[in-house]
């Protein structure tokens, strides 16, 4: 599932191309992504509008529109935005086409159909965006904030990192990698962190996310950039998916456990409980 670095990569790549382009036609091939909104209403709210900017918040893509409103996208498991020359017919996994005024297509493709597309007048009206917690790349994400917010929760640290209402953008891969880099156990109670540990966690979070964005994300199975190329950060993962392999720091075998029905990869020696 795309996490913050993958969504940031998509936002940056789309932001290089979309601003100034207007939407000439919208074609919906499968309306699941629109929730309860009728396809015709969705199309009507976009026709003739112009993209001015694309950015990210948590794992959401925000397309600023002129003269009004926002298209908000969430890729969930397998959603993708692809820029393409005009096509004769849709691929079976294409869910929506946005035909642009330069004769190109912005395609929303989604194999599993969990991704969502919403148009809102104001971002504060979006039902899920309002509930998002701190973005770990925002200015508000400081050691002080982390120490204070963590002090209010007894959740296991990894679950807390992945809770979008606390910190918005991390998923299973980066939570595991960040905890390894910080030398912190995924199982320990979030409010048990010391100031020194919160500082390590803060530094590891910023450093890994920035590195991953520089590498244009992690492609384990499905993630593709808007030009269909893969990211590169999968080559730099140190614990995720490495069960039984030697820890890159201490050579003891990487362990795997279950937390909230997800696999947690960690080094029991470097990340003691
Ligand atoms: Zn180790």
Biggest beta sheet summary: 4 strands, antiparallel
In whole angstroms, the N-to-C terminal distance is: 28 Å
> What is the chain-wise order of helices and strands?
HEHEEEEEEEHHHHEE
Question: In one word, what is the shape?
Answer: elongated
Sheet with most strands: strand arrangement: 1-6-7-5
Mean pLDDT: 95
Give the radius of gyration.
Answer: 20 Å
Count of helical segments?
6
At the first level of CATH, the class of the largest domain is: Alpha Beta
Low-confidence blocks of residues: none
Q: What's a quick, concise take on this entry?
A:
The chain is 25% helix and 23% strand. It has 273 residues and is an alpha+beta fold.
What does this structure look like?
This protein has 273 residues and is α+β, with helices and mostly antiparallel strands. The protein has two domains: 4-131, N-terminal domain of MutM-like DNA repair proteins (Alpha-Beta Barrel); 143-266, Helicase, Ruva Protein, domain 3 (Orthogonal Bundle), CATH 1.10.8. Helix content is 25%, strand content 23%. The strands form three sheets. It has a four-stranded antiparallel beta sheet with strand order 1-6-7-5, covered by helices on one side. A four-stranded antiparallel beta sheet has the order 2-3-4-8, with helices on one face. The longest helix has 20 residues, at 195-214. The radius of gyration is 20 Å and the shape is elongated. Bound molecules: zinc ion. Zinc ion binds next to loops.
């Amino acid at each position: 599932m795309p996490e913050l670095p993958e969504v940031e990569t998509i936002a940056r790549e789309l932001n290089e191309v979309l601003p100034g382009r207007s939407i000439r036609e919208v074609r919906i091939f499968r309306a699941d992504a629109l929730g309860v909104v009728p396809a015709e209403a969705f199309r009507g709210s976009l026709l003739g509008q112009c993209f001015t900017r694309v950015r990210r918040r948590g794992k959401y893509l925000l397309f600023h529109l002129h003269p009004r409103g926002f298209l908000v996208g969430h890729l969930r498991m397998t959603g993708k935005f692809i820029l393409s020359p005009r096509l004769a017919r849709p691929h079976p996994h294409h869910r929506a086409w946005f035909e642009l005024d330069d004769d190109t297509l912005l395609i929303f493709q989604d194999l599993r159909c969990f991704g969502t597309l919403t148009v809102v007048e104001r971002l504060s009206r979006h039902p899920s965006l309002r509930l998002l917690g701190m973005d770990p790349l925002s200015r508000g994400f400081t050691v002080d904030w982390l120490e204070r917010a963590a002090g209010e929760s007894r959740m296991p640290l990894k679950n807390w990192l992945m809770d979008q209402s606390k910190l918005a953008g991390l998923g299973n891969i980066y939570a595991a990698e960040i905890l390894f880099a910080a030398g912190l156990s995924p199982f320990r109670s979030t409010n048990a962190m010391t100031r020194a540990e919160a500082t390590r966690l803060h530094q590891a979070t910023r450093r890994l996310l920035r590195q991953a964005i520089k590498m244009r994300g992690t492609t384990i199975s499905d993630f593709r950039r808007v030009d269909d190329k893969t990211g590169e950060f999968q080559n730099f993962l140190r614990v995720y998916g490495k069960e039984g392999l030697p820890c890159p720091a201490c050579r003891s075998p990487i362990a795997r456990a279950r937390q909230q029905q997800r696999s947690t990869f960690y080094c029991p020696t470097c990340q003691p409980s």
